[in-house]
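The record is passed on directly below:
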Amino acid sequence: MITARAAATFEPVGRSVAAARAFVRDTLQGWGFPDVIDDAVVLTSELVTNAVVHAGTAAEVQCIRSDGGVRVEVSDRYPERELPVHTPGRTTGGLDREGGRGLLLCSAIAARWGVEYTAARKTVWFCLDLADRPAGTRSAGPALPTEALPVAETRVRVAVVQIDGSGAIGAWNDDAHELFGFPAKQVLGRPLADLAAWPHTPGTSTGIEEALRLSRWEGSYGIRGADGRIIPVYASHLRVRDTTGAPSTVCLLVRDDERAVLQSPLRSSATDTSSSERGSTDPFEVFIGSPAPDDLDGLLQRTVERARDMLDGDSAYLLLATDDETELEVRASTGLPSTRQRFARVPVEAGTGRYGSARMPAVHDDLSAVPGAVPLLADTGMRSVVTVPLKVEGRLTGSLGVAAEAPRRYGNEEALRLQFAADRIALAVESARLGELERLRRGSLSFLVEASDLLAGTLDRDQTLALMAQMTVPTLATWCAVYTIADQSSEPELSYVLHEDEDRIDGLKALLSKIAPPDPVPTPGARVWTAPTEAAHSAALRTSLRSLGLADSSGHIPGPGPSLATAAAVGGETVVLPLVARNRVIGMLTLGKPTDDHFRQEILELAEDLSRRAALALDNARLYSERTAISQSLQRSLLPPELPDVPGVEVEVIYRAAGEGNEVGGDFYDLFPIRDGAYGFAIGDVCGTGPEAAAVTGLARHALRLLAREGFGGPAVLERLNAAILDEGARSRFLTLLYGELWPQEDGSAVLKVVCAGHPLPLRLRQDGTVEAAADPQPLLGVMEDLELYEQTVTLDPGDVLLCVTDGVTERREGTRMLGDDGLTEVLTTCTGLTAGAVAARVLRAVERFAAEPASDDMAILAMRVPERQE
C-alpha cells in the first residue's frame, strides 16, 4: 500500500546528479528511513548520471513509500538506447565501463529492480526493504540475595533528560548536572547530539537521531562533560507523547559501570526456552540468538558480559581480527576502561613464547610475573587471564579473554569452557561483522561519491582546505588539521584546523602551532603521530600544577597554557595521512580523537581514500591559482601602470576583463607623453585570447611608444607596426587599433590627429548634444603588407568629449539584440555636461544593463573631455 510519494525533475546538466542525490536523501530522511538512505543515494546517483550525462536527457526521479519499503524510479526520454546487460564470461567493456554500471549496482544492492519501456520514455526502478525494528518490551527478573546484587561505590545518580520532537533538550535534572557538570540553563534548548559522543561510522549502527525516534531503545554511548572528557553512559530511551500529541523522548542515563540499574534482562528465544527447560546452565545458551543479527556492537558487548559471568571474572574483552589477520582490534570490554581501549590494536603474533600468539588458547597465572604479556591489561590491576581464539572454518576472526584481579584463578578447565563458548559464538560474531562491513562499504561509497562531487566543484585553495576538514569532522574524526607544503624546500605549514566543538578550535590551533609539524613522508596509509597527545598531556600537567600553585621539575611555576578541555580534546589517538599529488607530497591530513580514544581500521582506510581525492583537488586548486596569478600579472604588464596628467584635458579609462581573470591578451589601451606638449593615445583589440594574443598586445603597446617617440607620425607608426606583426609569421594576429596624437591648445581647445585602423570609430560629443564620428574607417593591421593609411585632424572645443571604445561595448548582446554603434550614440547623447569620468561610467552602466548575462568579451572605454573655461 502506497503511503507517500515525492517526485522531482532534473535538467540534463552535470550538477543535476548532486541535486538528485540531495532530493532522495532529504526525502528518505524526512520519511524516517535512515537505514536505506546510503543504498538509495548510490543507486540514484548512477541512474541519474546515465540519464543526464550519458543519455543527455532530463531525468525524473520519483520516491514511493509503502508499508514494506521504498521504491525509487528514474525515468529518461531515450528509450531507443540499448539496455546494457552483463553477461558472465564476456570481456568486452568490463565491469568498469560507464554504461550499465547502474544496473549492475541495482542487481547487487536492491531487493528488487527492473526496467520499463514506453514509446516515450525508459524507467529504471528499484526497491529497498526496510529493516524490522523491534518495539519496546517489558521484562522482569527474579529476586536475588543481597550478596548477588551489583555493587555501587557511591550514590547511584540517574540523569533524567527529556528530548523534544526536534531533538533539543527540554528537561535536565540535578543528577544530570552532577554527572556531566552542565547546569540546566546551559543545555536547555541544545540538541542532544551536541553532547552525545556517538560512533560516527558511515553506514553502520543507529545514529542518535534515529535512536530518539524509536519507541524504546537501550544501549551505551558517551556524553561530553563540561571539562571536555567523554563519560561512558548506559541509556534507556522511551518515546512518549503529551495530551496534545506532541512526541518527546525520556532518556534515563547512568554511568556505564552502573548499567544494571537500567539494563533490561535478556529474553530467551523459542530455542532458548527449550534449552532452559532442559536445565542448561550455560550462559551462552540464553545468549545466542538474542541480539539482532546485524547489531554487532550489542552482540559483542553481551558476549563479553556473559563470558565474564561464566568464569566469575572481574573483566572481559573481545578483539576482532583485521582483514589481513595481522592485528586485533578491541571492540568490546567490561570491567575495563572501555573508552580508552576501544579500537586499540595489538598484533596477533605478540612474541615467540608459549603465549605469544592469539591463534592458540592461553592461561596466565600471574601477569605481574610477565609484565607486558597482555598489553590490554597493563595498569588495570588484573593478575590472571585466560584467552581463547575465535575461529571460523579454521581462520582467526578474533580473540576472547576473561581476567581476574586475583592470581592463579584460571586453568585448563576454564580455558576449555571458554573455548567451547567461543566456538559457539564465533559464527554469529563473524556474520554480524560481515554485515557491518557491508553497510560500512555502502556508506563509504556514498560518502566518497559526495566528497568527490564537492571537491570537484571548487578550484579555490582555501575553500578546498575547508571542505577537506568539514568532510572529516565529525564523520571520521573529532578534530582535523591540514598542513600544506608550498614546495620541496619549504617546511609544512599549519593551514586549517577544525574541531567538532567550535569552542575548542582556537585552543587546538594554539596547541598545534607550538609543536613541530609531522614529517612529510610519502608512504601511503595512516601513521600514528604522538606529538599532539604528548603535548596535550604536558599541557594538562602544567595546568594542574598552576592551579595548585606548585612548581614544575625546574622549580618554576608554569605559565599560561592550553586548558584542560583542549588537552582532553587532543589527547586521543592522532594519525597523519600524506597528501600526495603528481608524485609529490603537498601536505598532510591530520585526524585526531579525544582523550584515550582510537580509530577503527575501516575508518582509516576510508580516510586514506578521501586523502587521495583531496590531495588531487588541492593540487588542482594550487595549479589554478598559480595560472590565475601568472595571467593576471601578464595582463597587468600589457596595460599602462598609470595614466599621465594631460594639462587642460580630462581623461578617464575603464577596463573590464571578461571571465575569471584566467585569460590574457584581448583589449588594451595606452596614454603616454611623446614630447613636450604632445601626447599619444591608443585603444586596440587583438583577435583571440591567450599567449599568442598577449604577444601581439605587448608588441603593439611597446612599439607604439617607441615609434612615436622617434618622431614618426600616426600613419608611419601604424605601417611599421603592421610590418612587425606580419613578421611574427604563424603567431601573428589581426589587430584593430585607434591611434592618435593629442595637443592641448592655449585657447582651451585640443587638437587631435587620429588614425582608425579597423577599430570602432571614435565618437565626438558636442556641447549642443550632437554626436558624430570623429574619423573614417581604414584597413586593420596584420592582414596586408602594403598599407596606405592617413590621419585625420579633430579639434575638441571646450565642453566637447571624444569617446573611444573596443568592440566589447558595441557588440554587447541580449539574445538577437545588439547595442551597436547606434545604441552607443544614443547613450552618449545623454552625457552633455558630464565630466570624462561620469561619461565613461554612464557608458559602462548602460552596457551592463543591456543584458542580464555577464559580458563575454573584454571592454575598454577611453573618454577625453576638454572642460569649459572658467570665467
